[in-house]
Structure formats: C-alpha cells, structure tokens
TrEMBL record:
InterPro entries named in the record: ATP-grasp, ATP_grasp_subdomain_1, D-Ala_lig_Van_CS, D_ala_D_ala, Dala_Dala_lig_C, Dala_Dala_lig_N, PreATP-grasp_dom_sf
GO molecular function, one term: ATP binding
E.C. code: 6.3.2.4
Ranges of residues in domain ATP-grasp: 153-364
Protein name from the UniProt record: D-alanine--D-alanine ligase
Cellular component GO terms, alphabetical: cytosol
Family, similarity comment: Belongs to the D-alanine--D-alanine ligase family.
PANTHER family: D-ALANINE--D-ALANINE LIGASE, D-ALANINE--D-ALANINE LIGASE A
Binding site residues for Mg(2+) 1: D318, E331
Catalytic reaction equation(s): 2 D-alanine + ATP = D-alanyl-D-alanine + ADP + phosphate + H(+)
Record-listed ATP binding positions: 149, 193-195, 201-202, 231-238, 330-331
Cofactor note: Binds 2 magnesium or manganese ions per subunit.
EC main group: ligase
C-alpha cells in the first residue's frame, strides 16, 4: 500500500476451539509483530476454547505464550466482542463486564488466523460471509474440503494428482464393522500413519509399525475426530510448496519448494514438538535440493492442487518425492502456520516476498475478492 493510501482496519482473529489453539496464538504474535502499522490499524480478537470472543493485544498474547507455548490458552479479556450479522454495519460491537454496549471501529477486512476445526474448516468463513466482511484465505467450500483429509484426496484424485494408498474409517464403521475396517487397514502394510481426518499440526497422529499398535493408534486419533484416515507409509522426501493467489483473477503463484529434515532421532516424523517446540529437531532447506525441472513440476502441481480445491488467498501443499521420481501429494493446508519460523513464510521469503509484504499481499487479495458465490 502507498503511504498516501487510507489505512485499513483489520480484525485479526486468533485462538479458537480446536487443539491447535496454542499454534494460532503463536501465529498471531508473529503477524502482529510484522504487519505494516503505517498501512493497517489492527483490532486483535482472541477466541477462547469455549468459543467466546474478546479484545486482546500483542502484549497479552506474548505474556500467555511466555509461560508455556505448547499449552498456551487465551481465556478472555475485559471486553467481549460481537460481530453484527448483516449488511451496512461492520463495526465491532463491544460489551464490557457490566453489560454496557460500546462500538469499536468499522472493519475493512478480517484475517482469521485460526487453525484446525471451527476456524480453518469453513465455519469462521461462513460466519464472515453472513456478516459481509471480507476475509483472508479460502472460502467456505474450499476450507471445508481442505480440512477433511478424505474429501481432499477425492478432489486431488479427480484433478489427476497422484495420492498415496489410504483407507477411511467412519465412526459408524468403527462401531459396527470393526473387523472389516481393520482388515482394510492392514492391507495397506506397515509402516502406516493413523490420523484424525479433520485435525492438523500432527495432533492425534501415530506412526504404526505393527498390528499391536494399530487399535491404540486409532483410539488416539478418534479422541480428536470420530472419522479417521490411515495412510500407507511412503518412502520419499517430504517437500512443501507455498501458494499465493493471483490478483484480479490471475493464476496463483507458487514459492520455491522447501524441505524439512528431521535430524533428532527422538522424533520419528515431523510431529508437534519438532514443529513448534524444539529448535534443533529439524533443518529447513529452501529451495529444496531438487533438479530444476522437478522444482518447476512441483510448483505447477502445488498450483493444480490449489485449483482442485477452488482455493483462494493461500495454501501450502505437501508432497512426497519418491526415489523413482514421482511426486505424490499428501495434503494441502488452507491456513498454514504463519509464525516467523513457519515454512510457508520461510518459503516465500526465499522466493522474494518478505513477511510484512506477504501479510500485505494476503490482505490486498482479500479486499479485492467479492463476497458470496464466486
């Protein structure tokens, strides 16, 4: 934005009801520290684990995170926040402890930095559509499909992308067809990864190397989601690629691909601790050490995956690069981690877009995009 442009008011949403609540708070602190304050006024709104919305700020969130990042929780503030669900009034509605109503600034755009269910899955997006508030990221359908690892793979297969072998077990199937479900799963072979279908950031994921570990792994995944997905282990390097939408209908852009190598033998895969806690568990390389033609192919496939979901705004696509030269897509993340050390931010920084510029790009894209069906 130019210096003479009128400042826009951004509502930054963080926290939320999912198990990824602490990651959202970490992301929010990163964005608050990097956003261009000469171009944007920010209203920071924290959402508690039971779904209440309150005003907060960088100082409060930083204090919460300083205590215990992995278990950080936003529990509320002095003013509860409500959004009007109607046209013509984009003001933040504030209610103090005595029940008095106040009006905050009118919002131009919302940045929902909410990861996981009840935030990244189309629910917040639907609320913002009802409120007629522009927002960063994918719309309702793309967010919902991108949150569900089952339907995501169906969309990828329909678009001609290669996915690895997998099986899905619904709550009804686990209750009434357990033996048949286990038979389907074991046919995948070992190792395999048991995952909640609609969760992220490695919560509830277990690597299974033998049958005795399978049922406990399924029960662990079911603590996060009644519907689970089991994926066959794929031999290959894990390569990621960031996607950033194009302006005014232009084609999306892809970052240089990046690779995360887990170097700590205590981490069997890129789990929560390796991502967010340990500073020495993993090494990031961007661009990834791939032949130039393979880098370009991967970038094209990342865009193809974005379009397969009818994505908007941003996504991060995760692939396996196999020893025989195949690129097998694992998943996309429609609201990837956005902290100063997150892979999405790092890949774009290495591609030539700084953290502050990336935030501005996303907010600009949100303001360009119409609401409703498109």
């Amino acid at each position: 934005m130019t210096e003479n442009a009128q400042k826009k008011t951004v509502a930054l949403l963080c926290g939320g009801r999912s198990s990824e609540h602490p990651i959202s708070l970490i992301t929010a602190v990163g964005v608050l520290g990097a956003i261009d304050s000469s171009a944007y006024d920010v209203v920071t709104i924290g959402i508690t684990k039971d779904g209440r919305w309150y005003l907060t700020n960088l100082e409060e969130l930083s204090t919460i995170l300083d205590a215990a990042p992995a278990h950080a929780e936003f529990t509320g503030g002095s003013h509860q926040v409500f959004l009007p669900l109607g046209a013509g009034d984009s003001r933040v509605h504030l209610v103090d402890a005595d029940g008095n109503l106040e009006y905050g600034p009118a919002l131009d755009v919302v940045f929902p930095l909410i990861h996981g269910p009840f935030g990244e899955d189309g629910t917040i997006q639907g609320l913002l559509e009802l409120a007629e508030l522009p927002y960063v990221g994918c719309g309702v359908t793309a967010s919902a499909v991108g949150m569900d690892k089952h339907f995501m793979k169906v969309a990828f297969e329909s678009a001609g992308l290669e996915v690895g072998p997998y099986e899905v077990v619904t709550d009804r199937q686990w209750t009434h067809e357990r033996e048949e479900s286990l038979k389907r799963i074991t046919a995948l072979g070992y190792p395999m990864f048991v995952k909640p279908t609609r969760a992220g950031s490695s919560f509830g994921i277990t690597k299974v190397d033998k049958f005795e570990e399978l049922v406990p792994a399924i029960e662990e995944a079911r603590r996060h989601d009644a519907k689970i997905i089991v994926e066959a282990g794929i031999v290959g390097r894990e390569i990621e690629c960031g996607v950033l939408d194009g302006h005014h209908g232009d084609m999306p852009r892809a970052s240089y691909p990046g690779e995360i190598e887990v170097v700590d033998e205590n981490h069997g895969f890129y789990d929560f601790d390796a991502k967010y806690i340990s500073k020495s568990s993993a090494v990031t390389r961007c661009p990834a050490d791939l032949p130039k033609d393979m880098q370009e192919r991967l970038r094209a496939l990342a865009v193809k995956a974005f379009l397969a979901l009818d994505g908007e705004g941003l996504s991060r696509a995760d692939f396996f690069y196999t020893p025989d030269g195949r690129l097998v897509i694992n998943e996309v993340n429609t609201m990837p981690g956005f902290t100063p050390i997150s892979m999405y931010k790092t890949m774009w920084e290495n591609t030539g877009i700084s953290y502050t510029e990336l935030i501005d790009e996303l907010l600009t894209l949100a303001l360009e995009r119409p609401l409703g069906l498109r």
